[in-house]
What we know:
The complex is a heterodimer of chains A (249) and B (293). Chain A is an alpha+beta fold. Helix content of chain A is 20%, strand content 18%.
Amino acid sequence: MTELPATTQRKLGLVIDLDTCVGCHACVVACKGWNTENYGAPLSDVDAYGADPVGSFLNRVHSYEIAPTGGGCSQTVHFPKSCLHCDTAPCVTVCPTGASYKRSEDGIVLVDESACIGCGLCAWACPYGTRELDQVAGVMKKCTLCVDRIYNENLEEVDRVPACVRTCPAGARHFGDLGDPDSDVSKLVAERGGFDLMPEQGTAPTNKYLPPRPKDRLTAQPVDISSLTPVAEEPKGFLGWLDKALEAL
Amino acid sequence: MHPAPSVIIFTVLSGLGFGMLAFLGIGVLDVQGVAAFMPFAIAFTFAVSGLIASTFHLGNPQRALRAFSQWKTSWLSREAWLSAATLAVMGLYAINVIFRESTIAPLGWLGAALAVATVFSTAMIYAQLKTVPRWNHWLTPVYMLTLSLAGGAILAQQTAAALLLLVCASVAQLLHWIFGDRRFAQQGSNIGSATGLGKLGKVRLFEPPHTGTNYLLKEMVHVVGRKHAQKLRVIAFVSMILLPIAIVATWPGSLAGTVFAAGFFVLGTFASRWLFFAEAEHVVGLYYGKHDR
């Protein structure tokens, strides 16, 4: 049903560290791989080897440049973006068929592809652009928080996290229960001042972003290099004899 | 937003059909029996062809019946119910008028109310979206309702109502353009709030996520044709409002006048509705470095 649950027992989600992300797109590739082979319709590509390739992705990495307010060097920030599993998810309530729903047990927002008519209204309702209508299957695709990994007892325990988190070589992605104030992810958000994207939209996203730390600035005085000036331009003694002897050869 | 032909045809034609059904429902026809067949046939043709067009933008139209299930939260689902109820009630009303030569007034009024509610629910599908500031305004239902009823009044040859409603529609359209142009800035989302990085400094897109295009850009970051927007607004306004007013006022109640007035009205409404989509900016464009002023 497309009515949102009043509360969810847990709030599973991601914390993305914009200070640590190096923009390698490994999470994008891991996500595409896992979600093409597992839950639901594969993430199709159209004209994949042609002139105008286009495909479905559940996770994309943008890069932004910040010119600091007080002047100084610009800072580049790599910015991965996938479904934020919002508490008041606008994509759920607009769905006419009940295909789009939010789970009361863990807060994950999912699409029942067998009920999706592919009207695209949920993608219009999402401010973050995290839902894409698959052009081959005609159904809406979105991040499942790897619901088929995190509870999957056939996988090693270390692998029971979303594919993007498991693969991130920089450790910039964290997975956990953001509804529990004592969880590692909640502590991380509190410590680093984690924030919501577009809070003015009133979506109350579960996923949080950690801000990039300010760039280091040189504060030490320049080193005195006067001691490095040459003490003698002309060689003397043995070196002077050698110099002359070699020139005479 | 991408101005998809299926959705433009749907909102224009079904708006016109339901607007006409509303007038037929309140009993403006002074004929019964076979003579009443044509007006009802015209109204039902517009309403139903619009609804059929709407299914062309679905990825899996074979499951369309499921859209009736979520009326508690979804305006699209409510629209499905209301349109089906309008067609059923007005169908019953029309059968009685045409074949039994009896006018069941309460049934007609119910049908008329349902027809108006259907157009309102169509408008709310767009007006509810906070992500598209231009649409997220009470003027959106006013714009669609006045146009739908004005078109219905032209087709039902209600001269006074048509003139009054065309004037109302012209005000609604002008205000929708004027307020719509300021709405994105007013609503307050920008690349700084979208990325959450705005408090650190001035943010600009350095690199998009991919070199090609994607569904989001095609569907929601449509920018083609906006440069002709002002010209199209003039064309839409003249064809949708001024010409029908002139024609209806000059040749009230004549068949040729009705056909020409309705023809210009439909053409103008298509232009207006194309602009309604093409000029609408979705906040997701901010992530791609668009709409930031």
